[in-house]
Amino acid sequence: MTNHLIFSKVKETELLQWTNIEESPPYTEIEVLRALDQLQAEPDHYSKEAETILYTMLAYHRLRRNQASDKLTKLLLDRGEKLGGDVTIQKSLHSIIYYQAVMDHLSTLDLENWTIRETDFDATKLKMIEEWHQALNQYFIDAKQNNNDRNVVNIDLSKIDQTIQTELAELNQLLINSIEMLENRRSGVPTREINKSIRRLIELKLEFNQAFPNLFNTDIARSPLQKLEGMVGLEQVKKYMNQYYHYLKYQQDRKQIGFQMIDEPGLHMIITGNPGTGKTTIARLLAEIYHELGLLDSNKIIEVNRSHLVGSFVGQSEEKTMNYIKEAVGGVLFIDEAYSLHRQDASGNDYGQAVIDTLVSAMTSGELAGKFAVILAGYPEEMRQFLWSNPGLRSRFPEQNMIHLPDFKIIELLDIAEATALDNDYFFTETALNSFYGLIERAKVDDTFGNARTVRDLVMKAIFKKGAAITIEESDDWLDHMRIESKDLAVMTDKKDDIEPIEQLNQLIGLNNVKDEVKKLSSFVRIQQARKNQGYPTVPIQLHAVFSGNPGTGKTTVAKIYSKLLKECGLLKRGHFIVASRSDLVAGYVGQTAIKTKNKIREALGGVLFIDEAYALFRGENDFGKEAIDTLVDEMTKHNENLVVILAGYKQDMVRFINSNPGLASRFKKYFEFQDYETEELLQIANYQINRYNYQMTKDAEDYLKQAFNSEKVSGNARFVVNLVDEAIQFQALRLEDIIIQADDTQFLTLNKEDFKNAWQAVKGADHDEKD
Questions:
Q1: Which residues are CB-contacts of 124 (< 8 A; sequence separation ≥ 6)?
Q2: How far apart, in whole angstroms, are the C-alpha atoms of residue 696 and residue 687?
Q3: Quick check: helix, strand or coil at residue 472?
Q4: Which of 90, 163, 351, 657 might form a disulfide with 317, Cβ 3.0–4.6 angstroms?
Q5: Share of residues in the chain with pLDDT > 90 (%)
Q6: Per-residue pLDDT for 235 more than 90?
Q7: Where does the AAA+ ATPase domain start and stop, copy by copy (predicted)?
Q8: What is the mean pLDDT of the chain?
Q9: Spatial distance between the Cα atoms of 361 and 351, rounded to a whole number of angstroms
Q10: Is the pLDDT at 717 greater than 50, yes or no?
């Protein structure tokens, strides 16, 4: 399936309008990277001034993302300068980089811990003052070396910087005078003036940091809600979390007035979501919110799962659980995959229930109640069953304290992929991102898909593939080592067969009626897909099928090709082939058949589920197979566009089976009848099998087989022929064993009539034994 993402193009007019460093650039870092990448193919696409701004904009983004300058940031600014042009914003950025270095240099002085007391002994004073003087001297030496880079585009920063340098010089002089007084044992060391000067410098340092443009101010900490807003997707969750925050704050404000609330919902929370949807991240943000509002003493979060809490003998689970609860006091106890604490099929030796009982007790009574919050997380269906099986626990979590995190949309997953790549200093080309879209689509087949986690893993695999294949040369452009291309994703794409599915079908012997039906369906699917791509209405496609025929007529082989064809047409994401029989779907006791059937269907999602001898599922109304059929019908409806089911078996048995359940009859509209092979077709299969191993058949052997196929009906069809050839080869070996030294090449390669007569009796006898 070809995906066409829409990419915004970087326009020169908008580039030239960006002239103020206090304003965000019109394009993201990734868009700028792609624009610079495009310049390699089209060097004259932008004017020199616009190209300068591109390099400056990229340096800006990089500086803001890392909150510090590095070699690549300086390289980008140098590239921009070499292009020429008077770009004011470039000078502003140089200024920011310079003053960030000044700030970092100033931070080497541990001013916050510099303090001296009148009551200190002279020896103590002397030691401290000498250390401070030495630190200041080193500071001035380093500052002098870096002074050549000074740029005063930012007047505010320049003024504060000059004031700081003056204040530092005055403090240093105070220290020099004090050292002289202490060494000469004179009294009157100006401790008050020294402390006052230090406090003034601390204030100036804070003022200096606040004078940076907000986008570069490292002292501005993001609130939990701001962090949440920065996350990809989760729009409904963001809305709820904002409401929840304001509700909690409102209740806190009411308490300050004197109001009371008896039925408080509490802070305990349930978070559900499929893998990789951000459950742990949301739990950490909740801990920060509770602390920020003063509801908990700290924002610490103790993260545990079943393995941390459940012991191996009586009493150990209670002890381990209480230890983690005590550790979480003042903060949050976060239990991931909480449903695993209760196992429906658990024996008497499973102590998960002891954990639940201990937890409920600590949450509701005793000295720890109200001193910590519990957040339980897990997959939606498992958590629903877990809570319903534990009424005491469920009652501690009101409905409004339950957050469900939806799966990410594909476009959101692409944003996560690009952010992951950028965090590691990579970016996707447009064609690579389109390829990555297809990777996500193929991986996103059921609720086991890992969402953000899977996407990050895929990105890191691409980065590994790139890094394992190239080395850095001096002549390389820096972009060469940031670019993720389609070839870097090749390791994760499905390997194509050397032979196309339709060609594989054509190579099969016989089956002309089946071939025609499959080709007709394949053409129909392709045309409907083309109509859909062009915006025309499409006819619903019925892909579930019934393959009826005797054993060995090619049902499984054609089903495999069918799955490949559907994947090639873009109707199946994976196109894999899962074979099942009654034993794979039906269990021995009530309730387990549905689970077993659902698990097999989940395994087949995105591909074809081939149920051989499907009629064996129905053995009467009281048989567990009926539960498997009902579950199959329900799951086919639920996963209609993500699963193809093929039922196979004898013709009459399959007709009775389909008619036994109205749900089956309405879902299987496509029937393929596999006829027994004709004599000539069976001979072709025999010759094909013989040639595979570089053998040949004598004329009298071929005549014997033709007569045998005509006179006696064989069960098993192609399977019978394959077994027949295998047996003939073994009988040939037995025949040649005594003359192996004298045997020539022709004898080694030839199967004669005697070999096949013996083989026929052996295979027919085995066939009769199987029937008996």
A1: none
A2: 8
A3: coil
A4: 351
A5: 34
A6: yes
A7: 265-407, 541-676
A8: 86
A9: 16
A10: yes
Question: Is residue 484 scored above 90 in pLDDT?
Answer: yes
The per-residue pLDDT for 573 is 79
CA–CA separation, 69 and 76 (whole Å):
11
Q: Which H/E stretch holds residue 269?
A: strand 269-273
- Cα dihedral: 287, 289, 292, 297 (round 10): -30
What pTM was computed for the model? 0.71
Can you tell me the distance from the alpha carbon of 161 to that of 374, in angstroms, rounded to the nearest whole number? 49
Q: And the tokens for 412? A: 């959101």
Tell which wins on pLDDT, 661 or 276: 276
Set out the domains of the chain in order of their start, with CATH numbers: 5-86 (no CATH), 106-216 (no CATH), 224-404 (3.40.50.300), 410-489 (1.10.8.60), 501-674 (3.40.50.300), 679-768 (1.10.8.60)
Q: What angle, 0 to 180 degrees and rounded to 10, lies between the N-to-C axes of helices 155-183 and 88-106?
A: 20
Contact partners, residue 168, CB within 8 Å, separation at least 6: 136, 139, 140, 201
pLDDT at 718 over 50: yes
* CA 662 to each of CA 159, 653, 658, 666: distance values in angstroms, whole numbers, following the listed order: 85, 16, 8, 6
746 pLDDT exceeds 90?
Answer: no
Lateral strand order in the sheet of 577-580: 577-580, 608-611, 644-649, 545-549, 670-674
* Backbone φ and ψ of 270, nearest 5°: -110, 130
CA-wise closest residue to 320 among 359, 291, 349, 264: 359
* Residue-wise pLDDT tens digits, 387-415: 888 888 888 888 889 999 999 999 999 99
**Shortest CA distance to 552 belongs to which of 505, 510, 607, 615?**
510
Report the DSSP beta bridge partners of residue 127: none
pLDDT score recorded for residue 735: 84
Question: Comparing C-alpha atoms, which of 301, 313, 381, 376 is closest to residue 341?
Answer: 376
Kindly give the pairing relationship between strand 373-378 and strand 670-674.
unpaired
Residue 757 to residues 166, 707, 716, 763, 764, Cα–Cα distance (Å):
110, 11, 18, 10, 11
Residue 710, Cβ density class (10 Å: 0-12 exposed, 13-18 middle, ≥19 buried): exposed
Residue 253 to residue 261: CA distance in whole angstroms: 12
Burial 631-648 (b: 16+ CB within 10 A, else e): bbbebbeebeebbbbbbb
574/552 Cα distance (integer angstroms): 27
- Whole-number pLDDT of residue 771: 44
- What are the structure tokens assigned to 39, written together? 């310049």
Q: How does 186-205 read in b/e, with b if 16+ C-beta sit within 10 Å? A: eeebebeebeebbebbeebb
Residue 749, by phi and psi: left (phi above 0), alpha (psi -120 to 50) or beta?
alpha
The 10 Å Cβ neighbour count of residue 655 is 15
Measured CA to CA, the distance from residue 387 to residue 770 in angstroms comes to: 52
- How many residues would you count in the chain? 772
Query: Residue 471's pLDDT is what?
Result: 79
Tell me which residue of 69, 55, 66 sits closest to 27, measured CA to CA.
Answer: 55
Task: Indicate the pLDDT class of residue 349, thresholds 50, 70 and 90.
Answer: low
Report the b/e string of 341-372 with b at 16+ CB within 10 A. bbeeeeeeeebbbbbbbbbbbbbeeeebeebb
What phi and psi, each to the nearest 5 degrees, are found at residue 445? -110, -25
H/E stretch holding 271: strand 269-273
- The Cα 543–Cα 641 span in angstroms is 10
For 762, phi then psi, to 5°, come to -65, -45
- In the chain, the N- to C-terminal Cα span, in Å, equals 50
613-659 confidence digits (pLDDT tens): 999 888 777 678 888 888 999 988 888 878 999 999 998 898 888 88
Both tokens assigned to 668: 């299987």
Partner residues linked to 580 by β-bridges:
611
Mean pLDDT of 348-376: 86
Beta-bridged to residue 373, according to DSSP, are 332
